[in-house]
Structure formats: C-alpha cells, structure tokens
C-alpha cells in the first residue's frame, strides 16, 4: 500500500495499557541481552535506541512520545547535532546490556534495565506529554527528557522517580469485571468500559460491536449473560496481550488492531492491509505519519547508491567529530578541575624565567617540588601529568 492510499488525516491512536503489553510481549524476547549501539533523537518527541546482538543483529527501538513504540531494522534521517539529553544517554548507555524490560503494572509506562560498569534504569512514559527519564539503580533521576511538575510528583534531576500507580488491571478476574460494570455510575456501558476499566473508546466500542450490544445502554440495563459475555471478552484480550507470538495485525479505516481475540477476523472487507506482526503495522504507520522523515532504503539506482555513500561518509565524519568533541570536552573538564594547580605552575615558570633560569633547570626545579611536568622549549609546549 502506498502513502496515497491512506487517509491524509490518519494518525495512530495512542497505545492503551493492552497495546503496551501486546507490543512488549512481542519485542521483549528480541531485545533482552542486546547491547546498546547508539541513541538518537530522530525529531522532537521521537527517540531511537539502536540495539545489537549476535542472533538478531541490528534492531532499532523507536519511541514516539507519548503515543507508541515498536522495533524495526530500518534507519531514519536524524539531526546532525544531537541534543544534550541524547549525548548523556549515549555516554551512560552505550555498550550497556539490556537485562530486562517490563511494563509497570497496567500503566502506559515501560521500565528498561541496563547494565555496564554501572546499572541504569530508563523509564518511557506514554502519557501526555510523554517523557523519557534516566535514573540510577536506586531510581534517583539523573536527567529527564523534559522536566515536569505535577501535584503529586516532580520529574527533575536528583529527585526520586515516582509514578502514581492505579489498580493493576492485569490482576482482574471475571468477578472483578462484573462487579465493576454492575456498580458503575456511568450513563452508558461504552463509557463504563472506556473509563472504569480504562479500555478507551476504540476497544470499548469494538467489544460491544462484536457482541452485538448497544453501546449507549446503561450498565444497569444489561442482562446477567450480557455482562458475563463482556467480562469474558475483556479477559481474553488481557490474556492474548501477554502472548509472545501470533500478533498478526490489521490496519483498517479506524486504526490499527492487533489480533487479541478470535473474533478479530482480518479480511479485505475490513482491512486496508494485514501485517504479520504488531511492530510491522506500527512501522508502517510511523513512516506514513512522519513523511518528512526520509527513510534510508537499499535502492538499485546509481543516484540512490551515490546518495547512500555520501550519507555514510558524512556519518563517519560526524562520528569522528563527536569523538573529538568528547576528547576535548574531557580535556577541558580536567583543566577546569585542576585550574589552581596549573595556574600555580605557570606562575612559578614565569617567576623563574624572570630570573633568567633556563627551561631545563626550571623543569628540574618543578619536579623537585613534586610537579610532574615536561617543558618542550623548542615547540613551546608544557606537558603536565595530572
């Protein structure tokens, strides 16, 4: 399917807690024990973590805040100058190993565990406005993508990371769901499902449509058997969201739909396109939702190959510049930390030179005083071992 075949106004609905679990269940086996190769910010609110492992080779985790995440082997154009936050993530996470990744309760919140010389935790918040929060292993915030303050918590450096957890909906059983629906004060069953069980409008309307129930009917008007059917349907969605395999997905006129229930039949009548995995449909949506992002693909034309060589060359140059930047940054920080010592050495050299003492003698004097220095008078260089 081409971009033109999609509705121009099409935008992916944000993940709800079931979508988060379904995607995580699919990608977790592929990412665990992978090493971080590089971190990028494709554009505002869109981050890419490139992983590598011997089995699956390169895999990119794309996070589109606050909407969704997926994995892909594709690469996307990126800004030539990484942000300070991305540079920090590279410094802390590059070459670290992803030891675990989990959904926090039934929240739209992912927790990624990284291990290298130090252990780090990265939180991905898929709630508006969306955030990525780097913490140490004690959950103390090192730096967030954006500093935010709420009535119950503050997301800022040196603060303890906290998240207002609600009831874990993955712990629901049939009796729980029936009780929630029977005691709901919502005016319609669709609102009771959307708000009291936090399914959102998309899944709530889909459930009632598949069960041939009127969505505007009050929960109190439902028969016992109808409520039980809804509870069974919800439980099936929860169960199937946790399966690693069988995440065939459909892209229809409304949105994407992972196959979380046997009643979700994907055919040409209902689907614009069927995908073999949850990640592949989100990759397709991402490409069509962010058309300004150029996708680097293998092409046979000489013009495309030439462009690819240019991009590769420029990336190598950029990596070299970044290495030089890190080197000189470290040197600058070292000088700053030892400014008093360096200033003292320079003053001593100036004072001794005013007494017409040679550089060779000055070097000996300074070494006797405990300074590990070497003076290269010929090239006007002073080397200080810090």
Description:
The protein is 38% helix and 22% strand. With 386 residues, it is an alpha+beta fold. The chain has helices at residues 17-31, 84-93, 174-182, 189-196, 200-210, 224-241, 278-289, 302-337, 339-354, 359-368, and strands at 35-43, 46-53, 57-64, 68-72, 75-76, 97-103, 109-115, 119-125, 131-136, 141-144, 148-149, 154-155, 249-251, 256-258, 273-275, 295-296, 373-376, 381-384. The protein has a 5-stranded antiparallel β-sheet, with helices on one face. α4 (189-196) crosses α5. The chain is built from 10 helices and 18 strands.
Q: In sequence order, what are the helices and strands, one letter per element?
A: HEEEEEHEEEEEEEHHHHEEEHEHHHEE
Full CATH superfamily name of the largest domain: ibrinogen binding protein from staphylococcus aureus domain
Count of the domains = 3
Radius of gyration: 29 Å
Strand content: 15-25%
Summing up helix and strand content along with how strands pair, one would put the structural category as: alpha+beta
Provide a count of the helices.
Answer: 10
């Amino acid at each position: 399917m081409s971009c033109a075949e999609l509705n121009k106004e099409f935008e992916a609905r944000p993940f709800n807690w079931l979508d988060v679990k379904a995607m995580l269940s699919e990608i977790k086996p592929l990412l665990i024990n992978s090493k971080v190769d590089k971190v990028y910010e494709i554009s505002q609110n869109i981050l890419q973590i490139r992983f590598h492992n011997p089995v699956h080779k390169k895999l990119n985790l794309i996070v589109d805040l606050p909407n969704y995440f997926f994995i892909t082997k594709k690469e996307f154009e990126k800004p030539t100058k990484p942000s300070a936050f991305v540079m920090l993530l590279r410094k802390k996470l590059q070459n670290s190993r992803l030891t675990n990744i989990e959904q926090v309760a039934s929240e739209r919140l992912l927790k990624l565990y990284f291990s290298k010389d130090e252990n780090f935790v990265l939180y991905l918040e898929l709630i508006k406005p969306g955030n990525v929060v780097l913490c140490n292993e004690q959950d103390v915030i090192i730096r967030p993508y954006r500093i935010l303050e709420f009535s119950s918590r503050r997301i800022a450096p040196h603060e303890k990371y906290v998240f207002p957890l609600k009831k874990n909906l993955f712990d629901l059983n049939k009796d729980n769901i029936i009780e929630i629906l029977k005691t709901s004060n919502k005016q319609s069953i669709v609102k009771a499902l959307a708000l009291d069980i936090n399914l959102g409008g998309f899944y709530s309307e889909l459930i009632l449509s598949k069960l041939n129930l009127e969505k505007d009917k009050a929960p109190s008007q439902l028969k016992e058997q109808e409520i039980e059917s809804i509870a069974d349907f919800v439980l099936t969605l929860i169960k199937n969201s946790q399966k690693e395999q069988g995440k065939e997905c459909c892209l229809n006129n409304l949105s994407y739909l992972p196959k979380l229930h046997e009643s979700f039949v994907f055919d040409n009548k209902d689907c614009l396109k069927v995908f073999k995995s949850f990640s592949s449909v989100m990759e397709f949506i991402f490409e069509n939702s962010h058309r300004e992002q150029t996708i680097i693909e293998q092409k046979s034309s000489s013009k495309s190959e030439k462009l690819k060589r240019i991009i590769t060359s420029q990336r190598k140059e950029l990596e070299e510049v970044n290495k030089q930047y890190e080197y000189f940054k470290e040197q600058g920080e070292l000088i700053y930390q030892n400014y008093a010592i360096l200033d003292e050495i320079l003053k001593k050299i100036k004072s001794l030179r005013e007494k017409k003492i040679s550089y060779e003698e000055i070097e000996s004097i300074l070494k006797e005083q405990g300074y590990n220095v070497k003076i290269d008078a010929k090239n006007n260089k002073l080397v200080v071992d810090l």
